């Protein structure tokens, strides 16, 4: 082959890549818009770490007890838990996009209540409201993103929501390092407002439009998302979606459908994933990152360390669609176990040294937390939501997802509320070793129960659970 032929082929390949990228831009825009809610949720989750320290220093409400601080931190999870059945109902009746629109405005209100709070009670109400709205969004956005995405980019786009959660946490840590908790809260109020504006420029899920019999709307939505020039380009995909919806409508819409043979297994897998995701201890780390760093007396600025924890996701997220779901989940659990084991060793040595840091090891807890966040961000952070939205059948996606997310937030509350109690009972070393052990158990369970879904269509995944064919 001549040099001219090689150069011509290379140019053609590059042009094909450019066309492929252009045709995906609207999917990326729509997924990015829906993922802004993840930024707001991350801000809610990370808020208490810098805010509680700011409140202690400013004494805006006098001396707030440690028990009340745990309630301020954890009440977000209660609101999110109660949001799960509400989100399931709204998604099925109003639509995916409409549910996001409906809860964006009260999200802003929740942040404003916190900003202008003159009592702990107002802060608690504001935190509950942001948790409720964040809970609806965290359940709705991943499903919306899955339903608008083509198979080739579904994993990448599905991970965007969790990545935005981490970035929301980073931003909150960074802002909290330079301003008071009030200004930080006002800053966070802008993002659900931005979400509301962005939602005006994206379409409703084509799957939901088909479910409601609006076939022409679904066709136009797909043409817009795929940047197709004619109906013929998207007809095969539209036909597959219609067949998928038609098959789902043969089922009744009862809660007992969750116990059908093709439903209980993916639902159980989803619940196990969110269980191990929360029992990784991530909520405690996000809520109390600065306190953990301060407790090491390492000399590292806790604000800087907290931002570094969040920035670790940039490296980890690069792996998201480069490897299989299952290998990332298992590797994530093992990485978190190693990180927590190392941190536990540091605190054990300090306990044996009468509270003095072991020589030359003050860096170990911060390094361990960064490895933990990287491991979490590469697998157990985003992928449980991605896998959940991929494996739960369409006809029970609302109620099944509601059950799984309620389970998720119940454990998020439990982990956050018992943070101080566990440390008192187990000491710092035992606390981290406890979560390291759970992560190892999670790696084993995931390896033997979670099928590989990377690169598989929704139809192939459902066929696996219906006919038990092997896609692993």
Automatic annotation (TrEMBL):
Domain Major facilitator superfamily (MFS) profile, first and last residues per copy: 30-454
Alphabetized UniProt keyword annotations: Cell membrane, Glycoprotein, Membrane, Transmembrane, Transmembrane helix, Transport
Major site of localization recorded for this protein: membrane
Cellular component GO terms held in the UniProt record: plasma membrane
A UniProt-annotated Pfam family: Sugar_tr
Cell compartment(s), UniProt: Cell membrane
MF annotations from Gene Ontology: sugar transmembrane transporter activity
Annotated TM spans: 28-48, 68-88, 100-122, 128-145, 157-179, 185-202, 263-288, 300-320, 327-349, 361-379, 391-411, 431-450
Membrane topology label: Multi-pass membrane protein
Family: Belongs to the major facilitator superfamily. Sugar transporter (TC 2.A.1.1) family. Trehalose transporter subfamily.
Protein name as annotated: Major facilitator superfamily (MFS) profile domain-containing protein
Organism: Allacma fusca
Lineage of origin: Eukaryota, Metazoa, Ecdysozoa, Arthropoda, Hexapoda
């Amino acid at each position: 082959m001549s040099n001219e032929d090689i150069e011509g082929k290379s140019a053609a390949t590059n042009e094909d890549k450019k066309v492929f990228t252009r045709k995906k831009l609207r999917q990326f825009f729509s997924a990015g818009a829906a993922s802004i809610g993840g930024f707001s949720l991350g801000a809610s989750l990370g808020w208490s770490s810098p805010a509680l320290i700011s409140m202690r220093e400013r004494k805006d409400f006098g001396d707030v007890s440690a028990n009340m601080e745990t309630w301020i931190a954890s009440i977000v999870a209660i609101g999110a838990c109660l949001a799960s059945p509400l989100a399931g109902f709204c998604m099925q009746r109003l639509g995916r996009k409409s549910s996001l629109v409906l809860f964006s405005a009260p999200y802003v209100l929740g942040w404003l209540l916190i900003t202008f709070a003159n009592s702990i009670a107002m802060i608690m109400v504001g935190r509950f409201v942001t948790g409720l709205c964040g809970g609806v969004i965290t359940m709705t956005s991943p499903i919306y993103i899955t339903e608008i995405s083509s198979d080739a980019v579904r994993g990448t786009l599905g991970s965007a929501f969790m990545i935005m959660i981490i970035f929301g946490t980073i931003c909150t840590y960074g802002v909290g390092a330079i301003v008071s908790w009030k200004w930080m809260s006002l800053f966070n109020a802008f993002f659900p407002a931005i979400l509301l504006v962005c939602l005006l420029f994206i379409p409703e899920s084509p799957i939901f439009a088909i479910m409601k019999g609006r076939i022409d709307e679904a066709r136009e939505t797909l043409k817009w998302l795929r940047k197709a020039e004619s109906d013929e380009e998207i007809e095969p995909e539209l036909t597959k979606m219609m067949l998928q919806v038609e098959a789902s409508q043969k089922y009744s819409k009862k809660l007992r459908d969750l116990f059908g043979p093709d439903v209980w297994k993916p639902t159980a897998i989803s619940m196990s994933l969110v269980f191990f995701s929360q029992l990784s201890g991530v909520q405690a780390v996000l809520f109390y990152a600065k306190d953990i760093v301060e407790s090491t007396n390492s000399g590292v600025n806790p604000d800087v360390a907290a931002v570094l924890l969040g920035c670790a996701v940039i490296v980890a997220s690069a792996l998201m669609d480069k490897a299989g779901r299952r290998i990332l989940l298992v590797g994530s659990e093992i990485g978190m176990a190693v990180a927590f084991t190392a941190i536990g060793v540091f605190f054990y040595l300090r306990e044996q040294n009468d509270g003095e840091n072991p020589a030359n090891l003050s860096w170990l807890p911060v390094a361990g937390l960064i490895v933990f966040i990287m491991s979490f961000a590469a697998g157990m952070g985003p992928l449980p939501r991605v896998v959940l939205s991929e494996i739960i059948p369409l006809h029970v996606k609302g109620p099944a997802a509601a059950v799984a997310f309620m389970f998720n937030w119940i454990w998020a509350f439990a982990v956050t509320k018992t943070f101080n109690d566990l440390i008192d009972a187990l000491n710092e070393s035992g606390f981290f070793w406890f979560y390291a052990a759970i992560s190892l158990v999670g790696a084993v369970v995931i390896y033997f129960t979670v099928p590989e879904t990377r690169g598989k269509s929704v139809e192939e995944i459902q066929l696996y659970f219906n006919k038990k064919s092997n896609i692993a």
